Amino acid sequence: MSNWIIVPVVLPAFTACFLVAALRFQLRWQRAVSIVSTAMLFGVAIGLYVLAAAGEPRPYLLGNWPAPFGIVLVLDRLSALMVLLTSGLALLVVLYASAGWDEKGRHFHALFHFQLLGINGAFLTGDVFNLFVFFEVLLIASYGLMLHGGGPGRLKAGFQYVAINLVASTVFLFAVGLIYAVTGTLNMADLAVKVGQVQAGDVALLRTGALLLFGVFAVKAALVPLHWWLPMAYAAAPAPSAALFAVMTKVGAYSILRVYTLIFGAEAGPLADAAAPILLPAALVTLAVGTIGVLASRTLIELACYSVVTSMGTLLIAVGVFDALSISAALYYLLHSTLVAAVLFLLVDLVAERRGRFLGRLIPSPPFGHALLLGGLFFLTALAMVGLPPLSGFLGKLLILDATRDSPQSAAIWWAILGTSLLLTVGFARAGSVVFWKQGNGRIAGPRTGGTRVLPISVVLVLLALTAVLSIAAGPIMHEMNLTAEQLLDPARYVRAVLGGGRAFASAVEL
After folding, report:
1. Of 263, 266, 389, 414, whose CA is between 20 and 30 Å from 72?
2. Taking the C-alpha atoms of 346, 348, 349 and 353 in order, what is their torsion angle to the nearest 10 degrees?
3. How confident is the model at residue 489 (pLDDT cuts 50, 70, 90)?
4. Cβ neighbours for 220, distance < 8 A, ≥ 6 positions apart
């Protein structure tokens, strides 16, 4: 049992508490501690990924209580990948925020680390109830991050965001209660054994719990028709918060992958593939609705928000096929879409800062500072988000199309992805031409037209460079994603690692 597994949960927790208790009024020291802690977290995440890639899933038993009776964290290839993605993005976001955004409120850095605590805990937990607990931690922190800086717009969006997530949390508790009532356990590995053994009279009740749980994850993943909260909430959030939220929506996608391959997967008896009939059609509609939102956007921030919806639709289309090839393609696209969404939110912030009273509205404005540089960055980001060569969005969509060739729904998937890619190209071309090409009369005045800030621009460049790395190193990265998908679709390995019950699980499957 490696003690390093708990560090991605403990380190942000202690950092957040220290920032509140000792450095509440000292922003400069808050920045230093926050950046150093996030850099340490990134280093630990690299080590954990190497550890996970070396062998079987590894459990961490809190208090040394054996599973399924105690709390357990589990490190496998998927959880290690998600922690690495989160910590790397967090390091870049905290650098961006330290250039000025964190001055708008006293507790930005503390809330930021509480958010990391919740996200990393959700990725590492091996227990459905603790998944609920970490969901609540990350959501409470996200409320504060979303309202950072204040204003009536953020307050209104924040109220709706809180309301929808309170409803989702209540449904989550009902789902957990139903599952526990039928199986007597909430440990994921134990559930993987017991779900396939439930009596016939309990199947309907357990299926209800499984579908309620899927509804909760659909809310987190912005799956239509439960997506409506995302554009308003992300548009109102400060740019660094929205960039970190790019990985928060992936918590929903991760939860679907984890629960509906391990617990309600192909070997769950009468509850096998419980989410499959719903997920793929809903993902196709999500992609279409997000694309319509991009075309109808009146501001750059709306464009960015609906782009996140389209990327979630594309990602969940691949997940919805539920085979090794499609899941590995989905994981590659997950990496790409998270990075590009973060770039887009930060870039929109930089553009709005320089356009004065025009902000990010899609109307011509007078010439503004560094329009050529920002226009070039927007062009590259648009290529990546739409899925045009040579960046990773093109490869990600190509991999998904290839992986779904033999699916019964392949025609619908191909038409949806290719057709929406064309429409997204139109939407981004329209936005870019209005903001960076067309010029109005007059001049932009005020303090928002200051010189280029090196650190924020550097963060955007690094994120774009990472998407280029995804393209250049697509072969080795896809090899890793293939291994991750294979491990994910082999529940016996997970059960054996957590419970030591590989043979018992195999026997249960045969029964």
Report:
1. 266
2. 140
3. very high
4. 135, 168, 248, 249, 251, 252, 255
Task: Give residue 370's Cα distance to chain centre.
Answer: 31
Pick the closest to residue 508 from 267, 293, 185 (CA basis): 267
Tell me the three-class secondary structure of 92-121, residue by residue: HHHHHHCCCHHHHCCCHHHHHHHHHHHHHH
What would the DSSP string read from start to end of 165-220?
HHHHHHHHHHHHHHHHHHHS--BHHHHHHHGGG--GGGHHHHHHHHHHHHHHHHHH
How far, in Å, CA of 368 to CA of 356, rounded? 8
What is the tally of structural domains in the chain? 1
- Residue in the structure block whose two tokens are 């139903």: 178
* 233: nearest Cα among 168, 328, 317: 168
Range of the domain at 438: 275-472
Is 17 among the domain residues? no
CB atoms under 10 Å from CB of 153, counted, come to 11
In a domain, 358, yes or no: yes
Residue-wise pLDDT tens digits, 148-194? 776 777 787 788 888 888 999 999 999 999 999 999 999 999 999 99
Q: Which residues of 349-361 are buried (b: 16+ CB within 10 A; e: fewer)?
A: bbbbbbbbebbbb
Q: Is residue 495 part of a domain?
A: no
Q: Could you check whether the bond before residue 390 is cis, i.e. omega within 30 degrees of 0? A: yes
Q: What is the largest CA-CA distance in the chain?
A: 77
Domain-embedded: residue 4: no
**Per the structure block, which two tokens stand in for 32?**
């230093």
Name the pTM for this structure.
0.93
CB 212 within 8 Å of CB 175? yes
The predicted structure's pLDDT at residue 67: 86
73: helix, strand or coil: strand
Give residue-wise pLDDT tens across range 186-242: 999 999 999 988 888 899 999 999 999 999 999 999 998 888 888 988 988 889 999
